[in-house]
Write a structure and sequence with these properties.
alpha+beta
Amino acid sequence: MLRRFSFGNLNSVVDLGMQRVLIRQASSNDLPWIKTLLETNGLPIIGVEEWFGNFVVALDGKGNRVGVAGCELYKHAGLLRSVAVEEEYRNAGYARALLDVVLKNAKQKGVSLLYLFTNDAKGYFKRFGFEEVTREQMDEGVKASHEFTECCTSCTAMLKTL
């Protein structure tokens, strides 16, 4: 049985050294920007609206949207998705800040197994404790996702135990 829930009201300030980043719940005003950012980065937009309550946006010190991350929640399992940062803001810690907030909130919601699919970021996610798994090893809830069935059929699957 699929049970969906959102992160709820979320605001988190993360210190990136010389500046702070605000990670906040995505709003409906962010949706067009999120879809454009994902498409620009070759990431799927299918399911974004369905799981929008679980998306967060990173803002720089001037209030500019710089990155996004989302999570689909299936009882005790989750699917990390749509981690993307605007090109000019990469390698400054924004993706890590987004990932930290999503991991923390997923764990608070009872997620113990967090999966993801990637084509080219295995090394990046391994730094955060994700390990490669086979598609057959994935949780049944995640197997029902659009990413599993439609978008990421040839991607590498990874798992982190929270």
